[in-house]
Write a structure and sequence with these properties.
The chain is of the alpha/beta class. The chain contains 7 helices and 11 strands. It has a domain of 147 residues: Rossmann fold, CATH 3.40.50. 37% of the residues are buried. The protein binds adenosine-5'-triphosphate (ATP) and magnesium ion. One of its GO terms (cellular component) is plasma membrane.
Length: 263
């Protein structure tokens, strides 16, 4: 489904080049349930943004279903995002002045062509996904009257609205207590097992990563564990230390990032 080869990304501030991803190779297949772990600053969010086509400023190859993401034009990219991917973030990004149901039906506003819906159809689909996350009774509530776990379930319902094949989650339980996080994990598991949705979850939470079927670990700008069946580039030996530290590389005074030949 997704195949990354030699993905490099650096941020340049003034003369300082921060090489965040330094040749990432990873494969993610249809229906997988994958955790991405690594220290703070190791480039997990950067990687998700590239996977989700939120960021197109990178080197290397990102292939989705056999197509290079960078070969798609703007319309192709927004279709890829809207039709295939549900995004879930640590902060739930709900619109406070809209009801939960309206929040969930928001993706309908961005639907184009054959996928455009009447308001009625959008709200009906919204109710359906609110039921899936067991919040049917909160459709009319405003988000700020909900608990953190409930807000995250509304955000998950919104991500489910367009029937995504892939859900990309950036620390989805980062703001939740352990038992609420557990409920969200159960929901993810059900989405993966019952609906076959592929889940990619960046997390610092051991409970989540242990429940995932594969853990992809990023260190020093590369994938050092769990790259997947076909991503077989040599990887450095690494003491699999747990998260908690800061992996932000010391910024180096350097010229433009080197252009290595990719395999
Ligand atoms: N827009 C940006 N401009 C400049 N530097 C950035 C930008 N976004 C991220 N960085 C830098 O890139 C590095 C990786 O950031 P990223 O957000 O991907 O880390 P992360 O692994 O998601 O960390 P965390 O676990 O803390 O969320 C960090 O050193 C960060 O300072
Ligand atoms: Mg992050």
């Amino acid at each position: 489904m997704i195949r990354l080869r030699g993905v490099r990304k650096s941020y340049t501030t003034g003369k300082v080049v921060n090489e965040v991803l330094r040749g990432v190779d990873v494969d993610i297949g249809e229906g997988e349930f994958v955790a991405i772990v690594g220290r703070s600053g190791s480039g997990k969010t950067t990687l998700l943004n590239i996977l989700g086509a939120l960021d197109s400023e990178y080197e290397g190859s990102v292939e989705v279903d056999g197509r290079q993401l960078d070969s798609l034009d703007d319309v192709g990219i927004s279709d890829y995002r809207n039709r295939n991917i549900g995004f879930i973030f640590q902060s739930f990004y709900l619109m406070e002045h809209m009801s939960c149901l309206e929040n969930v039906a928001l993706p309908a506003v961005f639907a184009r062509g054959s996928e455009s819906m009447t308001r009625e159809a959008a709200l009906a689909r919204g109710r359906e996904v609110m039921e899936q996350v067991e919040l049917a009774d909160k459709c009319d509530a405003l988000p700020n009257t909900l608990s953190g776990g409930q807000k995250q379930r509304v955000a998950i319902a919104r991500a489910l609205f367009n029937r995504p094949r892939l859900m990309i989650c950036d620390e989805p339980t980062g703001n939740l207590d352990a038992s609420t996080a557990h409920a969200i994990l159960d929901l993810f598991r059900a989405l993966n097992e019952d609906q076959g949705i592929t889940l990619i979850i960046v997390t610092h939470d051991d409970m989540i990563s242990k429940a995932c079927k594969r853990v992809v670990r990023i260190h020093d700008g590369k994938v050092v564990e769990g790259a997947g069946e076909f991503a077989t580039r040599e990887r450095p030996e690494l003491d699999p230390t747990e998260d908690g530290g800061d992996d932000t590389p010391a910024p180096t005074e350097a010229a433009a990032p080197s252009q290595e030949a990719q395999p």
